[in-house]
Amino acid sequence: MGCVVRVLGSCTSSLESAKSSGYSLVENYSNVNLNVPEKDGVVANPIMQNGLLTTTLDFLQTSTAVKQLKDLRALSLKIISLVLNKYGDHDFGYEFWDLFFTSVKPLVDGFKQEGSSSEKPSSLFSCFVAMSRSHNLVSLLYREKNLVADIFSILTVTTASEAIISCVLKFIENLLNLDSELDDEDVTIKKVLLPNIETLICSLHCLFQSCNATKR
C-alpha cells in the first residue's frame, strides 16, 4: 500500500505541475488542425494555450500524458478503496495517511461537484465511506475541514444520481452507527458530527422536500 500511495502522490504532483504550466486535458480535438505544415521537420503551427506558446504536437503529447496520469491516479485510488473496504481496521500509519490526504486534496477541494457530475460514486468517495464505518479510521474525516460538510451537502444537489445519494446516506448511517456503538467518553465521532450537524439536518430536509424525494 505504501507503493500505491506514493504512485498516487507522484501523479498528483505531476498533474499540478502540468496545470501550473498552463496545460489542460483536451476532451475534444476537433478544433485542432492536425494537417499542419512542417519546416525542417518541425511542426510550425503553434497553439496559444493559457498564454503558453506550444506546438500542436507538444500540445497533444502533453494532453495524452495528463490523461494517462489521471487514469493512473484513478487506478491507485481504486486499489486503496478496495483495501480499505476489506481491511478497514488495519493501521496504515501516519505517513501513509499524510501522503494520501496531500495527494487527494485537489479532488477534495471540488468534492461536492461529484454530486452533480458523476453517475456513480468515485473510488475516493468509497474511501471516505470505508472510513465512516471504521472505529480506527473515522477520525481521519476531520483532517479536511469542509470534507464532511461537503459530503452532506451533496444531498442538496438536485441533479445527483440515485447511486450518489445512496452513498451519502450510507456515509451518514455509518457515522450514526459508530456514534451509538462508541462509549460516551469517546469523542472521536462527535468531532466529526457535531460541527456539521446543522449542515446534515438542512441537507436531509432539502432532500426530503425535493420533488424527487418520493422516488428515493
TrEMBL record:
<dbReference type="InterPro" id="IPR011430">
    <property type="entry name" value="UTP20_N"/>
</dbReference>
<protein>
    <recommendedName>
        <fullName>U3 small nucleolar RNA-associated protein 20 N-terminal domain-containing protein</fullName>
    </recommendedName>
</protein>
<dbReference type="InterPro" id="IPR052575">
    <property type="entry name" value="SSU_processome_comp_20"/>
</dbReference>
<dbReference type="Pfam" id="PF07539">
    <property type="entry name" value="UTP20_N"/>
</dbReference>
<feature type="domain" description="U3 small nucleolar RNA-associated protein 20 N-terminal">
    <location>
        <begin position="63"/>
        <end position="211"/>
    </location>
</feature>
